[in-house]
Design goal:
With 272 residues, the chain is an alpha+beta fold. It folds into 2 domains: 3-161, Jelly Rolls, CATH 2.60.120; 172-271, Arc Repressor Mutant, subunit A (Orthogonal Bundle). It is 41% helix and 21% strand. It has helices at 87-94, 116-123, 138-153, 158-161, 172-179, 186-192, 197-208, 212-231, 235-241, 247-258, 262-271, and strands spanning 3-9, 12-17, 22-27, 31-38, 40-44, 49-53, 57-60, 65-71, 78-85, 110-111. A 6-stranded antiparallel sheet has the order 1-2-9-4-7-10. β5 (40-44) and β6 (49-53) form a beta hairpin. The longest helix has 20 residues, at 212-231. The radius of gyration is 21 Å and the shape is globular. 25% of the residues are buried.
Amino acid sequence: MEYQAKYLTEDIKLSCYEDKFFKSDIMFEHHMLIWFISGETKIVQADATFIFKKGDIFLIPRNQLATIINYPSNGQPHKTVVMHLSTKRLRDFYASIHVKPTRSESQKIYSFNNHPLLESCLASLVPYFDMKELPENIAGLKITEAISILRTIDKGIDNALANFEEPGKINLADYMEKNFMFNLPLEKFGYLTGRSLTTFKRDFSRLFNTTPQRWLTKKRLELAHYHFVEKKKKPIDVCYEVGFENLSHFSYAFKKHFGYAPTDLIRRQNVG
């Protein structure tokens, strides 16, 4: 995979994937504001799927789970400007503003539909990536500008940006039933449910009477079977959307669990 990134600072980058495909399961440590220059991305969350293309602008809140699938489009690479809105930066911004955010349980991606103010702010960054010397604090000024624009065009966004709470201990069974398709280290699942790794494994074993790895594999394969039968999806799409990293491993695990390969199931569906 040919990947290139140019950085203004650790919080602002120009990201470019020249390859045909890239997939990753991610938990975002910071809010991510993204502007698409070219290419296409599918973002799969537990209860929603989004497609973003050239010109789109969106914000992914921190501590959210998502499967990110990047594609080139129309012969152009997947190219984006990415701005991290870190907790430190946001604390500094809100220090003099009296805001009391309400806690939201939704895992919402904010879409801004080519908004001219945001597009102007993010597009103005592009020339800086080729400069050897930058104006002093230009990155900080641009991030402040972006936050100000976000607050102007979405009056409810303070509930995300000004909420600095860390995940607390939550219902483990409910969380895992909703988010099992994301292929993350167990430490991350522990963090997001308010547990250490040791406590996560102990609580998981008590609830499900098996290991996390076995339970996750079974749940992902059952979801894949549902996608084949009910949604008529293709193996290459199902593989990545249910938490597997490559098609050959997915096909092997599917056949081992059900006794037949995905292609056999699809063939029977087509004949029926």
